[in-house]
Design a protein that fits this description.
The chain is rod-shaped. It is built from 17 helices and 10 strands. It folds into 3 domains: 188 residues, no CATH class; 114 residues, 2-Layer Sandwich (Beta-Lactamase); 150 residues, Reverse transcriptase/Diguanylate cyclase domain (Alpha-Beta Plaits). The N and C termini lie far apart (101 Å). By secondary structure, it is an alpha+beta fold. Helix 2 runs antiparallel to helix 3, helix 3 runs antiparallel to helix 4 and helix 4 packs parallel to helix 7. The chain is 58% helix and 14% strand.
Length: 499
């Protein structure tokens, strides 16, 4: 029966029990050789008090005990019963031989030492106990025989007192020495297996990490393992996975980034070099899982660079880092598309009010340029068209006004739809009045399928005309100018109020 490689001390004891039981079975069968050897001694006249019957008895007992133990070993090799039976069988065989006048005093004490091989406290104390019981019983039963052979003892009691006293001393020595040996062995093996378990867990964790890294290597365009302990870098996409040293005193970028930076857009190069500076990565990544930044490759478009912590010191400083780059150009395009959708009015394709408000936030941060202009536009008569010709005609009117505004300011700035029929434009222009005239001219030329004309009211406020005004004040002034134009339109058309 082949035992698996043990990972714990408990598993080791079970595997070891199998091995020791196997060897003890060999020992039991080996005792069978004693029978013919003793018989030869009887034949040669060496053993006078031993009969051939004793030899046959030894052989028979060995055969029975060895067979029973072999059966137990085959059926229950890891059982404590199998081990205890083997030790008991050896002691029983020794007892029979001693009672048959075969002197085996030294062998009595070998049995407890054999039990130490099991590395088990209970087995050792059992072996001591059964060994002591059989040794004492055998000595008592064979005392008359030994006294009859010796002149230095008058009675069996004197013999027993002498022999058993010696056995007692030897047993105490055996018990003490064996206990110490057993404890030292068990403690050492337990510690060894604990260390082996830790090492095994570390190997498993490292294997899992390497499997993850191998998977990452398939996902990313570049994968670099940076070890700050041995100051090295290694490309996981490289089949040879060769380590290259990093000199942190003289080197600010890894070999991989020295290669990548050659393809970064010139206007982003400084940002890229700052982000990938190897001398500051650990500090920037401290207590973080990752840091990332996006840059443009002149050949393949947008890519994302990331530093990912895979091993850190107790204070959170990374000791091992994965550096990756991955092309995100398609992702960026989708992102820009979603931003355009979020910032665009669906009907007119102009920028929407959300975009307008966010742009104003930016204009509030810094001083406005001298040619900064805000335009405000409103469609005239929209309600009348909706009421008389339907909402399809009204929508056409709004789209027409949007087209006129967009075509007029496209080279100067951005146009926004900020309400139902309300529009704004943020432009850079030295002559805003000409822009107003251009919008009104295009509106006059416009023709629709449902509506013959579109009229709009346009107002503006220029930074040059109001140098002390902030962007919000310019917005108010542009709206006021537009409403003034609207009132003027109504007056010219004889409309007393807006409907």
């Amino acid at each position: 029966m082949k035992a698996k490689t043990p990972r714990t001390f408990a598993e080791f004891k079970l595997n070891n029990r199998i091995k020791v039981n196997r060897y003890l079975n060999y020992v039991l069968w080996f005792f069978g050789i004693a029978a013919p050897a003793i018989a030869l001694g009887v034949y040669l006249g060496i053993f006078h008090d031993i009969s051939y019957g004793t030899c046959a008895g030894i052989f028979g007992i060995v055969a029975v005990l060895s067979t029973v133990h072999l059966i137990l070993y085959k059926k229950i090799p890891t059982s404590l019963v199998t081990s205890l039976f083997a030790l008991t069988a050896v002691d029983a065989l020794l007892a029979y031989m001693a009672l048959s006048h075969v002197s085996v005093y030294l062998t009595w004490f070998l049995v407890p030492f054999l039990s130490l091989l099991f590395c088990d406290t209970f087995t050792f104390y059992y072996a001591i106990g059964i060994n002591t019981v059989l040794m004492v019983a055998t000595t008592v039963l064979s005392a008359p025989y030994h006294v009859s052979l010796r002149a230095d003892y008058d009675t069996a009691g004197a013999y027993l007192a002498d022999v058993l006293g010696g056995f007692a001393i030897e047993s105490v020595v055996l018990l003490t020495a064996g206990s110490i040996m057993l404890k030292l062995t068990v403690d050492y093996l337990s510690k060894l297996f604990r260390q082996n378990t830790v090492i095994g867990d570390q190997k498993s964790a490292m294997k899992e990490k390497m499997e993850i890294l191998d998977s990452m290597a398939e996902i990313y365009d570049n994968v670099n393992l940076i070890d700050f302990i041995d100051h090295s870098e290694m490309s996981l996409r490289d089949e040879k996975q060769k380590k290259h040293g990093i000199d942190l005193e003289a080197q600010t970028h890894t070999l991989m980034n020295q290669r990548i930076q050659k393809q970064v857009m010139p206007d982003q190069l400084d940002d890229f070099l700052n982000f990938t500076n190897i001398t500051t990565v650990r500090e920037r990544l401290k207590n973080k899982k990752l840091i990332s930044a996006d840059f443009i490759d002149v050949v393949s478009g947008w890519f994302r660079a990331q530093y990912i912590t895979v091993g850190a010191a107790p204070d959170g400083t990374p000791n091992m880092v994965i550096y990756t780059t991955r092309n995100v150009d398609e992702e960026k395009r989708r992102e820009e598309h979603l931003i355009r959708i979020a910032m665009t009015d669906e009907m007119t394709r102009l920028f929407n009010r959300r975009c307008y408000e966010e742009d104003l936030i930016e204009y509030r941060k810094d001083p406005l340029p001298d040619d900064f202009v805000l335009l405000s536009l409103d469609v005239n008569g929209l309600k009348t068209v909706n009421d008389n010709k339907g909402h399809a005609a009204g929508d056409e009117l709004i789209k027409g006004a949007a087209d006129c505004l967009a075509l007029s300011v496209r080279n100067h700035g951005k146009a926004y739809r900020t309400g139902g029929d309300e529009f704004m434009a943020v432009v850079r222009a030295d002559d805003p009045e000409s822009l107003r005239r251009d919008i009104l001219k295009k509106a006059a030329e416009w023709r629709g399928a449902y509506v013959e004309e579109v009229t709009v009211s346009v107002g503006y406020a220029a930074r040059r005309d109001h140098p002390d005004a902030a962007v919000d004040e310019l917005e108010r002034l542009a709206d006021a100018d537009m409403y003034a134009e609207k009132e003027k339109y109504y007056k010219e058309r004889g409309i007393e109020k807006r409907r």
